[in-house]
Hints:
Largest sheet of chain B: 2 strands, antiparallel
Strand content of chain A: 5-15%
Number of helices of chain A: 4
Oligomer: heterodimer
Radius of gyration of chain B: 20 Å
Number of domains of chain A: 1
Strand order of the largest sheet of chain A: 1-2
Order of helices and strands of chain B: HEEH
Amino acid sequence: xxxxxxxxxxxxxxxxxxxxxxxxxxxxxxxxxxxxxxxxxxxxxxxxxxxxxxxxxxxxxxxxxxxxxxxxxxxxxxxxxxxxxxxxxxxxxxxxxxxxxxxxxxxxxxxxxxxxxxxxxxxxxxxxxxxxxxxxxxxxxxxxxxxxxxxxxxxxxxxxxxxxxxxxxxxxxxxxxxxxx
Amino acid sequence: xxxxxxxxxxxxxxxxxxxxxxxxxxxxxxxxxxxxxxxxxxxxxxxxxxxxxxxxxxxxxxxxxxxxxxxxxxxxxxxxxxxxxxxx
Lengths: 181, 88
């Protein structure tokens, strides 16, 4: 699964969408104000017919506005899911398992290296004892750093996956809502 | 301590250290794979996600391979040879 979110473009789209929504509201208000003035000149059956048509049109506009707000809210939520809206993030989970397997194999190898040294019998007065112990300690530290790195990658990937599924869910929800309405 | 026993201990240390170098070399290759696959997994602002932590870990592993390979092992082997020459 690959999802590309360019939050810079998304943010620009959001600003433009909100401007257009406001223009749409203003323009509708102007039209209905003018229509209500004209309404004063109509009387009887014709007036009722005229009011019905205007109300029907007003209701359609309310539905359109509602959908536009939903899209605008979706944009806002997607922006919110990515902490930094100036970033373009592409995430492709194809190699997740390969990455994790390689890290696990590395940790396993470092463990074996440590175990080998821990179980070694060093001759009495062996000149390189401290050197070997130091190297072993450094390898233990590398292993700890690698475990921390694994945790941070796991966190980053799960956050990206969570965001991705949230976004897809929201997009499919809004598509369904718009189709239904 | 018997010479044979000391010889065995030295040979065992050399064997274990050589084996550890192989393990560290494998680890180095695994981590380079991680780096390579991470480059196509997460891209931020058109740049592959690069981690300073991972680069440091890889550098530390190379340093350790070099220390064992170029300093510890040759010295132990020399000491082992002198031990054999001295006893002979």
